[in-house]
Amino acid sequence: MQAGEFDVGGDLETRVDAIVRMTRRNLERVVDRRQRENALFGRLSGEDDAEARPIARGVAVRRVMHLEHDVGAGFDQLRLPGKQNLGRLARRVSDQKIAGQRADFRLCIRADFGRREEDAGRLAPEPLRFRLSDEGDEVIIPAPFWVTYSELVKIAGGVPVIIRTSAETQYKISGEQLSSAITDRTKAFLFSSPCNPSGTVYSKEELAELADVFAVHPNIFIISDEIYEYINFVGKHESIAQFDSVKEQVIIVNGLSKGFAMTGYRLGYIAANPIVAKACEKIQGQFTSGANAITQRAAIVALTSDLRPTHEMTKEFTRRRERILQLMKEIPHCDCAKPDGAFYVFPGISAHFGKRNGDNMIQNADDMCMYLLNDAHVSTVTGRAFGEPDCIRISFANSMQKIEEGMKRIREALEKLK
What we know:
Strand content: 5-15%
Order of helices and strands: HHHHEHEHEHEHEEEHHHEEEHEEH
Largest sheet: 7 strands, mixed
CATH superfamily of the largest domain: Type I PLP-dependent aspartate aminotransferase-like (Major domain)
Helix content: 25-40%
Strand order of the largest sheet: 1-7-6-5-4-2-3
Number of strands: 12
CATH architecture of the largest domain: 3-Layer(aba) Sandwich
Structural class: alpha/beta
Radius of gyration: 21 Å
Distance between the termini: 35 Å
Mean pLDDT: 78
CATH topology of the largest domain: Aspartate Aminotransferase, domain 2
CATH class of the largest domain: Alpha Beta
Low-confidence stretches: 1-9, 82-87, 96-119
C-alpha cells in the first residue's frame, strides 16, 4: 500500500471528513476556477457531450405523469431473461456466461444532488460492504484508478492496496504483479476496463492471465467496472466474467451514463452470483431503496432500442482520439500512451517538474493543472487524484474545434516553462 495520502486514521467522523476533503479538494478548486474563467475542456466529471436518446427522454417525461411503485432489485424487464422481457442487460451478461440460474441482476440509482459522476463506481460500496467483514481487510486496486475506488474501500473499513503500473505496460497489471500483491487479508480486486483515466482496455488474453491467478484464490471477489464498455476502440468489449473458472467470483458493475449518454438518470447496476446480488439488494434497501420508476422505464427503452446512436458516438470519439493524439505529439516532454477506450488521454508531465514561468513553479501534477487553468484557461485533472502523480487527465469529450484550441493553449503554456 502506498503511504501518505491513502492513510486516513482517527474516529469515524474524522475519517469520513478527511476522505471527502481528499477526494474533492483539487477537483473543486479547478471547477471553481474553471467557472470563473470559462475554461476549455470543462467536462471534469467524466460526462460526454452526447445527448441521451430522445425516445428515452420522451418515455421519462410521460412517466412523470404516471408513477408506479418500483422494487428494490429493479423491474423484471431490465433484470430477468425471458421471451418477452429480454433486455440488453440480461442478454449481455448471458453472452459473458454468468447469467442463468447462477446469476442475478440488481439495479441501483445514486441520487447525487445533480453531480454527474460515475454511476457504476458509486455502486461499489455495497459489494465491498458485503465482502469486507473485518477492519484491515485488503482490496487490490491497480493504479491509475477512478478517484472513488480507494476511498470506498476505506469507507467500508478496508485497506486499499495500490499497485502502480506504467505507460510502458499500457497501465495494465500483470498476473505476476497481482499474485505478489495477494495476502491472507485480500478480499477483493477492483479495476475498470476500459479505464478512466488511462483509457486502458484489457484483452481477452490479458484477462485470462488474471483469471488464472484468481482461480487459485476462490475467496477473492473481482469487482469489474465496465461502465465504458461501449466506448472502446478495439472493436469488442471483453469481460473477465467470461471465464468459467472465476465467473462466480465476478461482480460486474455498470450503468447507462457512458454508452447511452444518460448521465442525469443516475442508473447503475451489478451482475453477480445470486448470493452477492441479494445481499447487495438488502443493503441498498436501507440506503436508497432502489432505482426510481421513471429512470427504469427510460432505461428499458434505451436498452431495447437500436444501438446505432451508441456506435456513431464511439466513431466520433475515435475521430477525436486520433486528432488529440496527433496534437499531443507536437508537445515536447509529454509522454502519452494511446487510449483504447473511454474519452481521455493521460499524458505523463513529470519532465516539466522543477520548471517555472515567472512566479509559477511546477513541482507536481497539481501545480501543472492550476498553471494550465490560470495561464492557458484550460481545465485538466491532476493524476494524483487517480493514484498516478506524474500525469494529468485531459478529456476529449468536446467538439473538435475546442480540442484543437485547447491543445494549442496547452502547448503554448508549456513552451513558457523554463
